[in-house]
Amino acid sequence: MADPQDAPTAVVMVDPDGRVSGWSEGALHLLGWTAEDTVGRPVTDLLAGSPPAGLLGSPGTGATPSGPITLRHRDGASVDAVVTVQPLLGSHGQAQGRVMTVQRWDRRPVIVDRAFEQCPFALGAYDPELRFLWINASSGRVIAHSEEQVVGKKYREVLPEFDRSLFPERDDKPYTDKLAEVARTGRPARLITVFRPLGSNYANAWATSIWPVRDAEGKVRAVANWGFDMSAEYWARQRLLMLNEAGRDIGRTLDVIGTAQELARSSVPRFTDLVTVDLFDEVLRGEEPPSASLITSGESLTLSRAVRHSAGDGRDGHIGPPTPITLAPDSVAARCMAAGTSQVELAGEPGPGGEWAFGPGLAADPAHWPPGNPLIDASLAENGLTGRITVPLRARGALLGVVTFSRTDRPEAFTADDLILAEELTAKAAVAIDNARRYSRERTTALTLQRSLLPQGLPNQEAVEVASRYLPAGTGAEVGGDWFDVIPLSGARVALIVGDVVGHGLHASASMGRLRTAVRTLADVDLPPDELLTHLDDLVLHLASDLQPTSHFQTTGETGATCLYTVYDPVTRRLTLASAGHPLPLVLSPDGTRTTVSAQPGPPLGIGGLPFEATEIELPEGSLLALYTDGLVESRVRDVDQGIDELLRVLDPSACSLEALCDTVLHTTLPDHRTDDAAVLLARTRALDPQHVADWDVEPDFAQVPRVRKVAIDQVEAWGLEEAAFVTELVVSELVTNAIRYGEPPIRLRLIRDTALICEVSDCSNTAPHLRRARAFDEGGRGLLLVAQLTQGWGTRHTPHGKTIWCAQSLPQPGSA
Q1: What are the E-state strand segments in 472-507?
Q2: For 381-407, what is the mean pLDDT?
Q3: Other CB atoms within 10 Å distance of the CB of residue 656
Q4: CA 506 centroid distance within chain
Q5: Are 203 and 209 in contact (CB under 8 A)?
Q6: What are the φ and ψ backbone dihedral angles of 28, each rounded to 5 degrees?
Q7: What is the pLDDT of residues 91-130, one digit of tens each?
Q8: Contact, 251 vs 262, CB < 8 A?
Q9: Partner of 783 at 20 to 30 A CA spacing, among 126, 257, 611, 801?
Q10: Are 490 and 526 in contact (CB under 8 A)?
């Protein structure tokens, strides 16, 4: 007997008494009953349940009821059907019974069946258990199965590949689960399904809809779906999305290798499996790329492989240092660079008629290939590749290198659209790499200038032990204007300075050099810290006026700076400081106790008209001073107070090596990604032995000069410096005589034995002496000239109560000949 699903429409005739009077062949196929079994029996015996109200009503009413009904098959099974009831009329219109047309619930009229069967979209229907009820021819071609092969089988058995997530990275549900969800909830769903049909090397994208099929009572009887191939639109959208993301991701670092790495990460694994970026060494160094004549000379080209990134490396895979590579003149990469064109290579062999033998999907593509593409190369497969695109890396008319995009794991060949995408990605990267190259050149120039302006070595002095560090900002930021200095002063004192110029780049480096030179000049005058900052403030104001643009199209540089100027005296162990908008130093006693500096920073340099205040504190011997710029303690992830607390935690006054302590400070306090320079200057104070300092009051009487000379000579000889006695006698006599003649009491003489023998004479007059050349018959005017000739240095410094004239004699160092 034929399958009931293949049964045609059944026709049953019922007499006015409700008994079966006629039975068609289709009824036999549908329900299994013969005419002998049914004719004469009540039609209700064929029902598996009660009929819907009114469906089998009295004939002759004119009604043509229809609806779902459940019939009883001869084998006891229930058959869901749709019944239509029509009255059977005689020649005079009298009722003679009814005609019932019965069709299985899951069968369609012929014309509709033909429409759906021939639909170009893929259509299918499944029962609530996801067993195939029907698919059309288009769906059969997509899943590579006929309707006869799948009807009655479960979806998961036929298409197991759809029982896993289509996009695991998005945490999407498998397509099979979507079908089951619609059957369970009755809510339709729409989605895009991407899969590779059997026998194809290309993944297709399908727009699919899933909806429940309900009976008249609203019960879900089946699930249906349809889909159409939207691969062209889908992959075009994916390329646009990739280009959009590449525009966001490529060029963020302002670093040549970092930008090349961004290009590789933007392409792998969504577009290709392996990317290499080869650059000329000049580009890596920030220099101009080589001339076109070198590239077209026909000789081998030497480049550096900046990046080699594959799908196995992961998103954050390690990329090693650049390695040299040589391109032969006849290599694909060298020819592309010389010609300035891209080349696509595909693994495979052309057929006898010129057709391509590397998979379906490319038959329509040749019309879109540019001339000379693609190149069919069987050797690619030997190297484990299915295809390769080589694109010259060119920006602003200059050739920077070459990029290759290779596919290894995926079987699909590159298309002409893939070539366009590769060229677009390379063009974005080329501009970003060239920007990074130009930035690298400017940054290197600014950094070289800045390092040349910073101290190359800290000077020898005995007042403090010092160590320093300077680190420019990370590669993503320009060089700033942080600086520091250590300047020996008269009287065995030392000046410790740190500053920060507003802005970045060459202008900041040049401004920093001007300020450092100005501070050194003013320090030589021996000005107090507050007066020195006042003069420095005036200088910054003058620089600002000099930098005003002379035309509307000329940019002006940023002006303004902060500076901390401190002076430490090892004789008195006193630290004098003044700040122009700069953080105050951190001072720690030898036991680790923080010494508070009760001072407020003044305004930054360049404001003008506001005073600076000097503060003086006394320090125990062995105290640790930390002078720093804000780049050391401030960042995007923490505020200044947190940074200072962290710096205090790291500082250790008992550290044996300040150099090692500097390294620890930088390693601990600086963030990984810096956006500003950082400078730190550490100093451990020393105290001069009181036995190496001697001073005397001098009465303002010329008769006292011999006595003063004698006590000075006695002290020098007591220190074992007999060789310096003669010069000391002369300079003491001259300086004391000048103080008595031109100065004001009280007058005081002080000798300091340090790395040099220092002689100081102080008085209360503000008149500064000056060196002049006496004429042949002048009786005076030769004293200071004599002092200048006999000593290694002399000068004047002003004090709150007058001035001090000093001179210094070099002493032989221990171990010298």
Answers
A1: 481-488, 494-501
A2: 91
A3: 8
A4: 25
A5: no
A6: -60, -45
A7: 887 888 888 888 887 665 666 777 888 888 999 999 999 9
A8: yes
A9: 801
A10: yes
pTM score = 0.57
Find out whether 170 and 121 touch, Cβ atoms under 8 Å.
no
Per-residue pLDDT reduced to its tens digit, 515-570: 888 899 899 888 899 999 999 998 888 876 665 555 544 444 446 789 999 999 99
Highest mean pLDDT among 142-156, 420-434, 593-607: 420-434
Can you tell me the distance from the alpha carbon of 124 to that of 147, in angstroms, rounded to the nearest whole number? 10
Express as a percent the part of the chain with pLDDT over 90.
33
Nearby residues of 58 by Cβ (< 8 Å), 6 or more positions away: none
d(CA 560, CA 607) in angstroms, rounded, equals 8
| pLDDT tens track for 81-92 | 888 888 888 888
Distance set, CA 279 to CA 134, 254, 437, 611 (Å)? 59, 16, 11, 55
pLDDT grade for 641, boundaries at 50, 70 and 90: confident
Tokens of 390: 């080589």
Measured torsion, CA atoms of residues 213, 216, 217, 222, in degrees rounded to the nearest 10: -20
Sign of the torsion angle spanned by Cα atoms 271, 273, 279, 284 = positive
What's the mean pLDDT when you consider all of the chain?
83
Cβ-proximal residues to 506 (8 Å cutoff; 6+ apart), any chain: 442, 445, 446, 449
Q: Which two tokens stand for residue 679?
A: 């400078």
How far apart CA 252 and CA 258 sit, in angstroms, is 9
Residues 20-25: contacts with CB within 8 Å, 24+ apart? 20/46, 21/97
Beta strands (DSSP E) in 472-535 are 481-488, 494-501
Of 141-155, 208-222, 435-449, the one with minimum mean pLDDT is 435-449
678-699 pLDDT per residue, tens: 889 999 999 988 899 999 999 9
Length of the chain counted residue by residue: 817
Under 8 Å CB-to-CB from 205, ≥6 apart: which residues?
Answer: 192, 193, 194, 229, 230, 231, 233, 234, 235
Query: Among 92-106, 171-185, 360-374, where is mean pLDDT lowest?
Result: 360-374
Query: Counting Cβ atoms within 10 Å, is residue 49 exposed (0-12), middle (13-18) or buried (19+)?
Result: exposed
Question: Tokens in use for 360?
Answer: 């379906």
Sheet holding 343-346, edge to edge: 323-327, 301-310, 274-279, 398-407, 387-395, 343-346, 375-376
Residue 276 pairs in a beta bridge with 308, 404
Helix (H, G, I), strand (E, B) or coil at 457: coil
Strands 122-126 and 464-471: unpaired
Structure tokens at 796: 């004047």
Cα torsion through 470, 475, 477, 480, rounded to 10: 20
Single-letter residue type at 251: G
Answer yes or no: are the C-beta atoms of 501 and 515 closer than 8 Å.
Answer: yes
**pLDDT of amino acid 50:** 72
Which residues are within 8 A (CB) of 275 and not within 5 positions of it... i.e. 6 or more apart? 263, 264, 267, 268, 307, 308, 309, 310, 403, 404, 405, 406
Residue 722 · residue 763 · CB < 8 Å: no
Query: Poorest-confidence range of 172-186, 301-315, 343-357, 555-569?
Result: 343-357
